[in-house]
Amino acid sequence: MGGLFNDILGSGETLFKNDVALDFSFVPKLIPYREREQRTIAGCIKPLFNEKSGKNVFIYGQPGVGKTVALTKILEELQEETDEIIPVYINCWKHNTTYKIVIEICDMMDFKFVQNKKTEELFRWIKQNLNKKSVVFVFDEADKLEDFDFLYMILEEIYRKTIILINNYKDWIFELEDRIKSRLMPEIIEFKPYNYEETKGILKQRVEWAFVPNVLGNDAFELIAKKTFEMQDIRTGLYLMKQAGLIAEDKSSRKITLEHAQHALDKIKDFSIKSPEELAADEKLILDLVRQNSGKRIGDFFKIYQQSGGKLVYKSFQRKIDKLQKNRFIVVEKIAGGNEGNTTIIKDVSEKKLTEF
Ligand SMILES: Nc1ncnc2c1ncn2[C@@H]1O[C@H](COP(=O)(O)OP(=O)(O)OP(=O)(O)O)[C@@H](O)[C@H]1O
Ligand SMILES: [Mg+2]
Asked: Domain residues for 78?
């Protein structure tokens, strides 16, 4: 019988050393291949150390290229370095209006008496307290913002600061209202997708954190790395490694094999879609309509969708739009200001390519 069960995983055993290391929100010790970008950003913050105002920054780049993680790291280091510069990180997807942002900042600063208070009142409190020190504001996923009054308020009334805005689209910054644009004058930094070697390097680092040594086979890793590079989104690799590990465990295997990785790849369809053939019928209808009507507002576009026989209610329709955007079939642009307030424009991704790349 000797050795017969060696390849079988015992019921209490696991292939993962620390599966948290594959979570999208995990912040590794080192953020390789972004040193140059981080140094530029640090340079913009540096004047704050001498009680001067910093430079503002606009960061753009595709999903999953390390924008959030690079900035998280900078804020962490800043916090370790000094008490004189306050880091304020806001995810604008969660906090998408001036009121919500002001509430969130109060919350961060442990100010409890926010109830029944107006935005202006709360901001006055924030201002008094933040102006005792310097501040680095990071507004991540800024394309989700519904209004920009908070930006104007910060630009005008917080003295020593660096404002960092992050989003997926370069154009966004040029479409901001003039009164904000002219005060912001940001340094513009692009986070380009990683090349194949860099993609592999990042995933390798995670393998060491996440798995028991030597369980992830080399050919399985290569397949996952290749797919990740193709998708240009590190999250693809993290997801695939986690799934492959779970599939191997499910089969009580002590190794994660090529077959397990392949199986994980088949699952990816729910997570990220590669070809239009794999879209569900309503998604396909929406995509076809976007291609015929690129550049329309979301509201007008919804009408066209209904006239073309689309059955989804507006909320579900919006979710489909989000999904198509996430998978980079279409481009969704928020445009601030204008006669009718904020508008959301839907564009065909191939049109964007022609004009911008
Ligand atoms: N250079 C890197 N080193 C280590 N991990 C990285 C690196 N770049 C990206 N990652 C990891 O990839 C995942 C996606 O990165 P991140 O969340 O920073 O993307 P993003 O550019 O902010 O994308 P989005 O535009 O969708 O918000 C995260 O789990 C992150 O830790
Ligand atoms: Mg991000």
From this structure: 35-190
